[in-house]
Amino acid sequence: ITILVSAMAAVSSEVGTRVEESYELVAMPRWVAAMQRVPGMAGRSRRETNRGMQRTLGRIKAAAESGHDVA
Predict the structure, then answer these.
(1) Distance in angstroms (rounded) separating the CA atoms of residues 52 and 18
(2) How far is it, in rounded angstroms, from Cα 6 to Cα 49?
(3) Closest Cα to residue 2, out of 55, 45, 64?
(4) What tens digit of pLDDT does each residue of 18-66 get?
């Protein structure tokens, strides 16, 4: 079982709202840990996670700037 804890934080100011997403890998199966040692795999996984977080933040930004209620 892979346990990934994800968090979002929003800070408002007179200029706008800053939203940040972060994650912490708490536990992973041994085979996943072993794959992380294969050259290029850890970087690839990290890049994919970061791209996914950027997509999520982009969607939040688009929804916020559109003025529509997204539920």
Answers:
(1) 18
(2) 11
(3) 45
(4) 777 777 777 778 887 787 778 877 677 778 888 888 888 888 888 877 8
